[in-house]
Amino acid sequence: MDLGITGRWAVVCAASKGLGKGCAAALAREGVNLVINARGKDALEATAAELRALNPAIEVKTVVGDVTQEDVREALLAAAPQVDILVNNAGGPPPGDFRDWRQEDWYKALDANMLTPIALIQRTADAMAERGYGRVINITSGAVKAPIDILGLSNGARSGLTGFIAGLARQPGLAGRNVTFNNLLPGPFETERLEKTLAVASKASGLTQDEVAQQRRKGIPAGRFGTSEEFGAFCAFLCSVHAGYMTGQNLLLDGGAYPGTF
Q1: Does the pTM exceed 0.90?
Q2: Among 154, 169, 195, 196, which has the highest number of CB atoms less than 10 A from its own CB?
C-alpha cells in the first residue's frame, strides 16, 4: 500500500532507540524526511546514519538535547522546513511506590509526558491546518487503559495528555482541515523501558528477571512481546493519507493482553 506521504517532513522525538526509532524507520521507508531528537548524541547520530542508509532519497536531521527544554524544542522545529507529521515520545518516569514520590517527581513526569507534547502541538497544529494536512501521534502507554500499580507517575501524566487530546482532536478547525491526533498505547514491547520494568518487578517478587518476563508473556495471548518494527509500521499508517478519518483515538497495541470488550 502506498501511504501517500513521500516527501513529507516528520519530527520524531526520542528517536534514537526503541519505539521512537521504530516509528522513524517506518516513516523513512515511506520516503518521509526526518528531524529526529534524543538526549544522547552518539546513539542519535548512529540512528540517523541507519535511517539514511535505509532510504538514501530522504533527508535526516538531528537535534540533540532534552526536548522538555524550550530551546531544544525551538531547534527541533526550526530544523524542519515544515512539520507535516509530529510523533511525540518520551521515556516514561521511573516505576516505584507512590509513597516515595515527591512533588518534584510529579513535575518531571508531567513535563515530559504531558506538557512537552502539548507545547510541540501548540507550535505546529495551526500551520498543519493551514496547509490542509497534519498527523500527530502521541506514544503514551497501555497503562493509560489498564494502569500498572508501579507506574503511577506514568499513569497520571499520560492520562492527562490523553484527556487533552480527546478535546483537541475534535476541534472543527483542525479535524475539518485534515489534521488528526491519535494516541498509540503500547503494551509490552522489547525495549529498554520494558527491561527496567521487569528488573523492578524481579526485585519486588524475588523471581529472576527471566522468570518475570516469562510470566508476562503467559499473560499475552500473542505469547510474546511486541517489536519496534511492527509498532513503527502501525504509526506510519496513522500518518498516511488513508488515516484522515481517524482522530481522537487511543489505539492499544498489546498482543491481546487487555481483557476488556471496549
Answers
A1: yes
A2: 154
